[in-house]
Amino acid sequence: MADFAQNGVIGTLHNLRHRTTEELDADLSEWSAERPMALVLPCLYSELEGPALNSIIEKLAQAPYLEEIIIGLDRADRSQFENARKFFSRLPQRHVILWNDGPRLQAVDAELSNRGLAPMELGKGRNVWYCLGYFLATGRCQAVALHDCDILTYERDMLARLLYPIVHPTFNYVFCKGYYYRAANGKLNGRVVRLLVTPLLRALQLTIGHNDYLDYMSSFRYPLSGEFSMRAEVVPSLRIPSDWGLEIGTLSEMYRNYSHHRICQVDIADAYDHKHQPVSEDNPSGGLHRMSVDICKALIRKLAVNGKVFSPEVFRTLKASYYRAALDLIDHYHNDALMSGLTLDRHSEEATVELFSQSLMSAGEQFLRDPHVAPFIPSWSRVTSAVPDVFESIQDAVIQDNA
């Protein structure tokens, strides 16, 4: 994937030649004295029993520059939490587990909920939000990265390349997004980016006109990647969506808060594969069906905030434009896959586009029906203003759970 094109409004940092992981580690270790680094790992207990996380932990144990690893654990009872403590105990770095289902953190959540400040939905967004709250509460680190726990092709240099742009002493970036291409087992993957996000951004530009936000979003090569890093100064004002729009919502927040020149993306992997979500054609509450609706709503909400007017007529036009753009892209994807010796099922691709078309209309209907919904979890700046001792409460809960 190496090239040198800078054809978007944000900086793209390529893998122009292969520096060794040891070289990257040495640089990061040197810079860690001035800019300590943390890693957030949001996970489900079931991922401890999956095929990916064991290998990820073994490789993270060799990352010498990490000051702390913050693990957000969801869907775990007490015995499973104790198992998780043993599982992660091999990490030589300082590490803590946020037992999100434990009574202590549940009590913190209940207090925030009584004030209307707690996340409304369970899921990755809530998990990440509390982990970032703990990151701010300790104040130990000046940079933080986040990646998923189901990466089957994980290598240690993924994290090194993700952190490098925001801790380099002369770089001005405050936020970095990882990118890669998705292929595994002879198949071209990445359906939601390829078949929804890319053609939808093009259709929006045709329907409502070119604007800076759409140019910005179109600059990201893999906007739905779960891997990103940021400096500590970014975190307090960041509003995190609680639904499947987490990645799009986070990019939108960075657009709102910072100049394009302070945002970049970096090539972190030659190959990337992780757990695949089912399409869930008959279940709007699960899989890619739910994800596609939430992503559409995230884009629509952001454009509405920027002054764009949506109506049923606009959504009908947008659906038609999206559908045509997506079908045209399938031709390119098919040829690309074939030339690279990969397979692509055109029938399945077109069926998925049809589902995403329905998702787009469903998102539009939900937006028009209830435009006042608050999709974001409050920023930590707002929470600490309302509950000044909340960081102490989170720290106490985590310390006691991990004692």
Write a structural description.
By secondary structure, the protein is of the alpha/beta class. Helix content is 49%, strand content 12%. It has 14 helices and ten strands. The protein has an eight-stranded mixed beta sheet with strand order 1-10-6-9-5-2-3-4, with helices on both faces. β3 (66-74), α3 and β4 form a beta-alpha-beta unit. α11 runs antiparallel to α12. The chain is globular and about 55 Å long. The termini are far apart. The model has no long low-confidence stretch (mean pLDDT 93).
Structural class: alpha/beta
Largest sheet: 8 strands, mixed
Mean pLDDT: 93
β-strand percent reads: 5-15%
Overall geometry comes to globular
Annotation field: number of helices? 14
Rg estimate, integer Å: 21 Å
Question: Could you tell me how far the N terminus lies from the C terminus, measured between alpha carbons in angstroms?
Answer: 45 Å
**Which segments are poorly predicted (pLDDT under 50) over 5 or more consecutive residues?**
none
Query: Order of strands across the widest beta sheet?
Result: 1-10-6-9-5-2-3-4
The helix content is: 40-55%
Keywords: Glycosyltransferase, Transferase
EC number: 2.4.1.266
Organism: Rubinisphaera italica
Enzyme class: transferase
